[in-house]
Automatic annotation (TrEMBL):
PANTHER family: INNER MEMBRANE PROTEIN YDCO, MFS FAMILY TRANSPORTER, PREDICTED SUBSTRATE BENZOATE. InterPro entries: Benzoate_Transporter. This is Benzoate/H(+) symporter BenE family transporter. NCBIfam families: benE. It comes from the Bacteria. The keyword Transmembrane helix applies.
Length: 390
């Protein structure tokens, strides 16, 4: 029997999804890993194992359920880690990743926990995410005081691309930033190191305050901003994804990959929409092959992850900060829209947003945790003190 290869649109859809998912946010992931204690080599290990987790778990789920399960790394989780002011050892950081993965497994396999998490208003979770993203976007415009041409040029490219070719806006911004750096003679050769993917294990060492401060917010932003939208994308494409097994498997992939530096493997949303549409494959029953192609491309990226990490590390800090800020504008818009969509929960959302965005650290716990506390207090007061009847 002849083997039927997927049609050309399946390959192009998987290629574009990989290009957008990896290229658009890799600077943020590297910034996040180095901010929580990783060396360049350990960041390379982290990106390598993230790509492996995305590839292997995604291909396995797609083959098992015959639906296009597209995975990605946690972009909002990376933003949370990059914004953290808590000083971590790399061993403590890997414990944070592992704990977040365990929480995701518990939600996936325990219906009760899943229902409890579902009761957390999306407005509060999204407000916490918006507070995490805000400082990066503000820093973009602060940089305009010292780098006006760079910031102005990237902003024009970003806005024009968002109007005409929104799918490629971040890739165009990244290409423009690299070209600008090269024209100014600031594009230096990457530091020497491994070319091919390497895995450097680190024994996780738990720190209670760090686990409370970072693991819970990391778990929540990944669940609410990645896994749940990923399930919605699959349902919108006409599939019935088994939510529990899919969420538990992403948690297991995170847990297994955490000692090597993976901060979060989860369902994709934007890139998944590219691989689940009718344009990717006319036969919905065979569209899972698009996700398998996507997984194969991430395996190829894992092979060269350390070299890619060193290339981005060699870029000037202002360029990395500018690209990161622009990359997070769209997620910030989405988070703000969700956080303010329910009028009765706006008070809770705004105090969550402001507390998280403040960057406050108290009792060794970061602002994302205190943002959730502030939102929880506001929600409790709303229930205890109902509005008077008009």
């Amino acid at each position: 029997m002849a083997i039927r290869l997927p049609p050309l649109p399946s390959w192009s859809a998987a290629g574009i999804a990989t290009f957008v998912g990896f290229g658009g946010t890799i600077p943020l992931v590297i910034q996040a890993l180095t901010n929580v204690g990783a060396t360049v080599e350990q960041a390379g290990s982290g990106v390598t194992v993230l790509c492996l987790g995305i590839a292997l778990a995604g291909a396995a789920l797609s083959f098992r359920y015959r639906i296009p399960v597209v995975l990605a790394w946690s972009t909002p989780g990376a933003a949370l880690l990059a914004a953290s002011t808590t000083h971590l050892s790399w061993a403590a950081a890997t414990a944070v990743f592992a704990a977040a993965g365990i929480m995701m497994i518990v939600v996936g396999v325990t219906p009760l926990f899943g229902r409890l998490i579902a009761r957390l208003p999306a407005a509060v979770a999204s407000a916490m995410l918006a507070g995490v993203l805000l400082p990066f976007c503000l820093n973009l415009f602060r940089l305009s005081a010292t780098h006006p041409v760079l910031i102005g040029g990237l902003l024009v490219v970003f806005l024009a691309a968002r109007r005409k070719v929104p799918l490629y806006s971040l890739i165009l911004v990244l290409g423009t930033a690299i070209a600008w750096t090269g024209l100014r003679g600031e594009l230096h050769a990457p530091p020497p190191g491994a070319i091919f993917g390497t895995l450097l294990p680190e024994m996780p060492r738990a720190d209670i305050s760090t686990l409370i401060s970072l693991s819970l917010p990391l778990f929540l932003v990944t669940l609410v901003s990645q896994n749940l939208p990923g399930l919605v994308v699959l349902r919108s494409a006409g599939y019935e994804p088994p939510a529990g097994p899919l969420i538990a498997t992403t948690g297991l992939a995170t847990l297994l990959a955490a000692p090597f530096g993976a901060h979060g493997v989860n369902l994709a949303a934007i890139t998944a929409s590219l691989c689940t549409s009718q344009d990717a494959h006319p036969d919905a029953g065979r569209r899972w092959l698009v996700a398998v192609i996507y997984a194969g491309l991430y395996l190829a990226l894992a092979l060269f992850a350390p070299a890619l990490v060193r290339m981005f590390v060699s870029l000037p800090p202002a360029v990395i900060a500018a690209v990161t800020g622009l990359a997070l504008i769209a997620p910030l818009i989405s988070a703000l829209e969700t956080s303010l969509s329910t009028p009765d929960e706006r008070d809770a959302a705004i105090v969550t947003f402001l507390a998280t965005g403040s960057g406050v650290v108290f009792l060794g716990l970061g602002s994302a945790f205190w943002g959730l506390v502030a939102g929880g207090v506001a929600l409790t007061m709303k229930r205890l003190l109902p509005r008077p009847a008009s």
